[in-house]
Amino acid sequence: MKGCLTVILLLLLIALFINYTFFTIGMALAIWGIYEWKINKNLGAKSKKPAIILSIGLILALGSCVGNDDVTTEKEVAVKQEAGKVPNDESKKEKDKKQEEKKDDDKQVKETVNEEQSKSTAATGENQNTEQKESNTEAQKQAQLSSLIKKFGLQAAVVARVVDGDTFELSDGRKVRLIGVNTPESTTRTEEYGKEASNYTKSKLEGKRVYLQKDVSETDRYGRLLRIVWLSVPTDDMNENEIRSKMFNADLVINGYAEPSTYPPDVKYADYFRKFAREAREANRGLWAYGEYGTTKGDFDPKETEKKSSNSSTNRSSGSSSSSNAKSSSGSSVTSSSSGSTEYFKNCTELRKVYPNGVPADHPAYQPRLDRDKDNYACER
Question: Are residues 214 and 86 in the same domain?
Answer without folding.
Answer: no
